[in-house]
Amino acid sequence: MKHYMTRRSFLTSALFFPWLPRVGQSAQAEVNLPTGLEWGPKQPFNFDGLRQQAQRLATQPYQAPIIRQADVLDRIDYDAHLEIQARPETALWRDGDGPYPVRFFHLGRLFPLPVKIHAVREGIAREVRYSSRMFTFGKADFAAALPDDLGFAGFRVLHSRTEERDWLAFLGASYFRSAGTLDQYGISARGIAIDTALPKAEEFPRFTQFWLEPTADPQAVMIYALLEGPSVTGAYRILASRRESVVMDIEAVLFFRATVGRLGVAPLTSMFWFSETNHQPSWDWRPEVHDSDGLALWTGAGERIWRPLNNPPFVQTNDFVDHNPRGFGLSQRDRQFENYQDDLVFYERRPTLWVEPLEPWGEGSVQLVEIPTDYEVNDNIVAYWVPQEPALAGATRTFRYRLHWVADEPGWPDRSRVIATRMGWTTLPKTPPRPVHRAWFAIDFAGGPLEALDRQAPVQLVASTTRGSLRSPGAFQLAGARRWRGNFEIELEGGEPANLRAYLRSNDQAISETWLYQFIPRTSSSG
Q: Which of 71, 126, 232, 251 is the most buried (most CB within 10 A)?
């Protein structure tokens, strides 16, 4: 019996998925190459029609997809999938009749559910039909006999006709990601999150059809998508452009088949294992391993907040209540190779993904979910917007927002930023055990007003905690560095987490963003 993949199984495969063809595998070495794509009949298409289709589907019972050719697809494991490559001459828009060449992903064990992909021009859509002749199979030649109506797993958008690299890919459920400004894949986005981190099973609606259309902008592509799931259907319009950075303007029109317990809008998925805050495991040789190191918030009131990520001992869900947020994102702020030392996966180049609402979102909260992990293949961080208004059966909701795949969060004000968070013990007893409910925090700030201040400037650290006692807060300029350090000690009773808050102030004015952290006391005195 075949089963749908869970978050962990999907993201485990996606983290190291081979977006780029393997070096040395050449389609030109094959003979009898196909001469182009195979097309379905012409059909009229526009976004209004897609929206009506999604609305109509929401009034009908959900039809769970059936995995065809399941035995063969199950044999296409990770290694076999590496062998299967789309032939260059079967790329959509390969002859310059569109903004970027588009190649297609083959189905396999990790991605067994097919999607339909259409090309649109002047209001007419034609489906690109799957054929095994579109691919080279290498050692996975057993898959070459699959039927010609099987469908694709997804697609990827290349930089140009002369480059094999891609900058945007849609693959699996409603997941998609971009290599961003620094040309390195990392964090993922998806169309919607349904019932994440609730006692019941999370639902994974999926994009079942795509329509790709050139625009008047030669550096942009319009992507339409139909979303289908047990509780929701949706019509998506995504304008993706690539210039100095990758920007995606998204309009999502959602129709609810059933009431949703927790609706997550503009969901982001990333990985955090360890950093300078929680230190590396003794057996791993790298100083840090993470795709993102913090949640950044720009509240409706204008406050900028930085919340370093945790790898907690149990699942943690935190809500940051807001009204009309200006933006939020999962950021990778540490851009120094020396802090990762990994020249294969380049964590220092992983993109920051920032969500910018394009209309007022009203009352709600940014929710951060942190899941324990003991290895980097597990994407264990999720962030999304949860509207206060419930998503009820029969309702329709529309959300418009912009995704920025960048190096740094956009729209940064003249404030200093947090660049590192460290914790440990100030003094140790002469004999074990170490104090399990007391810790010393050191928070490094840089940039903004701090650039013009000397060591004698009246800079203060303003710090507070939701429980326990906080002692000796202070701030000073680090010798030989254009950064300041704020530090304090926290002592708690019991094992419940404490939420900490701190920022730098000078002459009664805040000069830094606000640092937040959830301190979870150790349950053991070992280590």
A: 232
Q: What pLDDT, on the 0 to 100 scale, is given for residue 429?
A: 55
Residue 167 lies in a domain: yes
| pLDDT tops 70 at residue 465 | yes
Cβ distance 450 to 483 under 8 Å?
Answer: yes
Does 176 map to a domain? Answer: yes
Q: Look over the chain and give the mean of its residue pLDDT values, rounded to a whole number.
A: 90
CB neighbour burial string for 384-408, b if at least 16 within 10 angstroms, e if fewer: bbbbeeebeeeeebebebbbbbbbb
What are 171's two structure tokens?
Answer: 């693959």
Contact 160, 130 (CB under 8 A): no
Tens of pLDDT, residues 400-424:
999 999 999 999 988 999 999 999 8
Same domain, 211 and 89: yes
- Is residue 348 domain-shared with residue 205, that is, in the same domain? yes
On whether both 71 and 107 belong to a single domain, the answer is yes
**Please, are residues 215 and 276 in contact by the beta-carbon 8 Å criterion?**
no
14, part of any domain: yes
Q: Residues 430-458, buried b or exposed e (16+ Cβ, 10 A)?
A: eeeeeeebbbbbebbbbbbbbeebeeeee
Structure letter (DSSP) for residue 162 = T
Four-CA torsion 451, 454, 456, 462, nearest 10 degrees: 10
In terms of domains, do 284 and 203 share one? yes
φ/ψ of 243, rounded to 5, equals -130, -120
- CA torsion, ordered 469, 475, 476, 478, to nearest 10 deg: 80
The alpha carbon of residue 175 and the mean position of all alpha carbons in its chain are separated, in whole angstroms, by 9
**CATH number of the domain within which 75 lies:** 2.70.98.10
81-120 confidence digits (pLDDT tens): 999 999 999 999 999 899 999 999 999 999 999 999 999 9
Q: Give CA angle at 72 (70, 73), nearest 5°.
A: 65
**Residue 13 binned pLDDT confidence (cut-offs 50, 70, 90):** very low
Domain containing 464 equals: 417-519
In this prediction, what percent of the chain has a pLDDT beyond 90?
A: 83
What's the start-to-end Cα distance of the chain, in Å? Answer: 45
Asked if residue 439 and residue 392 are part of one domain, the reply reads no
Cα dihedral 306, 311, 314, 320 in deg (nearest 10): 10
Displacement of CA 107 from its chain's centroid (Å):
22
